[in-house]
Every structure is written in C-alpha cells, then in structure tokens.
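To whoever is covering the structure queue this week,

Two jobs came back overnight. Logging them here so there's a record in the thread.

Job A:
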Amino acid sequence: MKKSMLTCLVLVYNFFAFAQTGYQVGDIAADFNLKNTDGKNVSLVNYKNAKGYIVVFTCNTCPVSKAYEGRVEALNQMYAPKGYPVVAINTNDPVASPGDTYEKMQERVKEKGFTFAYLLDPDHIYTKKYGAQRTPHVFVLEKTSNGNKVAYIGAIDNDQQELNAQRENYVQNAVNQLLNGQKPTVPLTKAIGCSIKWKKEVSK
C-alpha cells in the first residue's frame, strides 16, 4: 500500500514538474512576425529552405541565458546550413527588466556577433502562445505539410556550467534524429533558467 502511494506521488510530482502550458509536443505552432535587431520583421516563412526551426525564448539579462549564448550560437552554426536555423525571441518586458530593451538587444548582438535572428516580443504574445516559462526555453519545430509541428520542448542540455563530461545534448539529439527521419526519443525536458519578466497590467 505504501509503495503504491509513493508511486502515485512520484507520478503526480513528475506531471507538475514537466507540465507544459501553451503548445504540447505534436501541436502545430503559429508563425510570428516580430522585429529583429536589424530593424526588419522576421517570420518563420522567411526561411524558404528550412526543414524546421530551433526557437529559443531567451533574454539579455538572465545568467542562465548568458551561460548558454555560446551554445545557442553554436547550434545555429551547426544546424542552419542543414535546414534548422535558430530563431531567438526575447521574452522580457523592458520596463520590468531595463537590460532587455530593444537597444540593449542590438548591443548584445553586436557584442556577441550572433548570426541568428533575435526578435522582440513586446506584449508576450508568442511567449504565452508557445508556453515559454523560463529563459532559455527551446521549441524545436519540424516543418511538415500541415504546418510547423512541435517536436521537442525544454532545455538545451543538462549542463548549465559546462562541467559535465556526460552532458546530454537534448536539442542536438532531437534535431539529429529529425534530420534522420526519426522522432526525438526525448521530446520533453524541464527548462531550467530565470523566470520571465512579465509586463505589469495597468489597473482600470
């Protein structure tokens, strides 16, 4: 009896630990039309030769996002030529987080030499639609005849500090499997990072 109850508690914990609001794996994700740091608007449809996309909800200021900047750039260098470009979206309200203004985004791109689009989502429309909860939070999309299907949701890997020799590269593994015509064997992990800085609602 005790063992059964413990099993139930573990299952409940796992459900809430990995509960995903917004899109679920297998859903068709909406395209967006958001302002890039070069002043031009970017949509997924702009990537004519894409086989899919690595959509990263991130920001300028979160220490975890900063720790992953090099790895996000490496993902774009590795997979954009293979048809899976990185598209990053800043989740944070610039009033709540002054380091995440559009101008600061432009400075970050110039400083770090990002080769991927870094888009502004000023009203959290797509942050909420996709269900991003932390920064960084990744959604790997597979381009299909029915639309852009969500194939993976979660963390980039399990090694924030780049100290784990046995690192599990979740996003790399998922994209590699998709390129090989397979479904990701690990389609969902828990995103670990900073909470999103939401825009405060104005009282009426």
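Job B:
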Amino acid sequence: MSHETHGSDGRSQRERMLAGDLYIADDPELAAESLRAMKLTAEFNLTDPADSEARLGVLRELLGSLGEGTEIRPPLHCDYGYQIHIGARTFINFNAVMLDVAPITIGDDVQVGPNVQFLTPTHPVEAEPRRAKFEAAQPITVGNNVWLGGGVIILPGVSIGENTVVGAGAVVTKDLPANVVAVGNPARVVRTL
C-alpha cells in the first residue's frame, strides 16, 4: 500500500508521528527508520554475551539516550529506538518490547523484569481509518527506582511515579503515583510504600 509522504498540512508522516498526531504507519521514511532499528536490534540480540562493549556500542547507536551502568539483556525489540531514553544503573531483563512510536522515558535505577512491554501506539477504533493504516501514539514515562515485575504491560500515555512497584503480569492502563505497589489487570494500587 502506498501513501503520500506528506499530509494535507504539509508535514511529513514522521513529523506527524513525532507530534503525536494521526499519521500513516507504512510511510517510506518511517519504514526506513524501522528497518534501521530492526537491523540494530538484530545485531544487539546476536552480540557475544561476554562482549559488553560491543553490546553497549550497538545500544548507543540504537537508542535516543542510555545512562551509565545500565544493562539490557537481549533480546530487545523496538520500533525506532531513537525515542527510547533510559537513565543510569537501570536493568532491563530478557525480551523487552518497546514500541517507541512516542517517547519511552525510563528513569535511573529502574528494574524491569523479563517480557515487559512498553506500548505507545494507539489505533483508531473506527474501521476505515484503521484499514487506511492510520495510527498515533502517547508517551510512556517510568520514574526513578521503579520495579516492573515480569510480564508487565504498560499501555499508551501511562506515567509511573518513582519508587513504585508493579507486580508481575499487571496491565497498567492509567497513571500510577509514586511510592505504591500496584497489581492486577487493570493494575490497581494495593499498598502505599
């Protein structure tokens, strides 16, 4: 399917995406950026586990920013990479999925369990715009010293406050304040820290 590179407002689909507006997902410029990210993630995912410098080098090329002392265990999956910003001393376990159509910002000292998903894209509920490949996105922000248990899913537009713990398998559908424990689907606060 082929679409115009620029919308009726003169902005490119990439500009529309970065602004958080509806855009055409299969735009050629965005497809090239996505292919770049796929190549870099494939390279990262195949790096020698003993070669931490090679892994860090690929991550620095892929991601928007990466703090000192942060470790990400492969495999990692993302859409573009450059919209992912990770603070210092953060640990991200195996099989993280970061759909960074909008920015994903993860603070310092965050612990991310295996199989955690950061999902920024949104799609129209109406059939016709969805069939036409329109989508948008909302950013995700994770504060400092958060712990996300294995299998947590974070939906578009969510912010998680510092020091919060999200239990394994929780689906975070709306913002969580700082200093709480949240569990379940949808995630709900069960305790203050």
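Note for Job B: The helical segments are 13-18, 28-45, 52-62, 127-131.

Please reply-all if you pick these up so we don't duplicate work.
Q.
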